[in-house]
Amino acid sequence: MVMHMQMDISKDWTLGEAIAFEGHGLHTGRPSQVLIKPIAKAGFWLQTPQGRLLLDTDRVERTDWSTTVAGIQTIEHVLAAAYGLGLSALCFEIDGPECPILDGSAKLWGEAMLAAGIRPLESKRRWLKAPAWQAEWGAVRLELEPADELLIRYTIDYRQHDRDLYQSYDYRWSPESFMAQIAPARTFTFAADVARLQAAGLALGGRLENALVLDEQGQADASQTLRFENEPVRHKILDLLGDLALSGARLLGRITISGGGHQSHVKMIRSLGQQASL
After folding, report:
1. Is 262 annotated as catalytic?
2. Catalytic option among 27, 235, 262, 265
3. Residue 123 confidence (pLDDT)
4. CA 92 – CA 22 distance, rounded (Å)
5. Cβ(262)–Cβ(67) under 8 Å?
6. Phi-psi region of 84 (alpha: psi -120 to 50; beta: other; left: phi over 0)
7. Helices 231-244, 76-84: crossing angle, 10 deg rounding
8. pTM of the full predicted structure?
9. pLDDT digits over 35-57, tens only?
């Protein structure tokens, strides 16, 4: 982490060397392999037989229970690791329909990136300044305010679904705070929803080893130990950071969001895309 404390955030950064992972997808249950390579061109890119595709909101295909971009499902956790560590130039080679879920968090992705080392590029990082903006989509409430850093207040409230889970968390971004406060937070679901999800072809690779399973009182399965008392809402911030990676810029602003998810994250990013970069 020492090198991150000295990071010149004004520049684009990439990996020092390639890293590889294999595993199975959370939703498809199918095996997949991911190779993440350093690249000298800013952006998060997907290598395909036809060439490189830029991973951005124009290529988002689905936002139900995960973010699917350019045919790759649940890509938000590895993107969260990259964005959370301040990286801005990577190329992904993915063999399979979905990124491996690993332990359900971004911790292992982030640790591997740190172990590979990071290095600056000559190019200047693209910045995006948040405007004063509000939106309300059903139960989702979202507000943006200008700021000179990235600040997030995220709230989840499942009480309207007769589930005793309400959490709120304030987060100030830095590479160090990401690895300590956000990266270890695992994806979660309610035990009562598992059968419905699997009937819809989702969560087919879900296990107690890769997801928190909560009861109606918001308590984790007896075989699981929470990494944080408020691990679910921290994972929501992880998801948001992964989706922010699709903006192609480092956001400066305060985000306040209640009841959000991948769909509202992408809607917000598309709105931000209309703003001029700094």
Report:
1. yes
2. 262
3. 96
4. 13
5. yes
6. alpha
7. 80
8. 0.95
9. 999 999 999 999 998 899 999 99
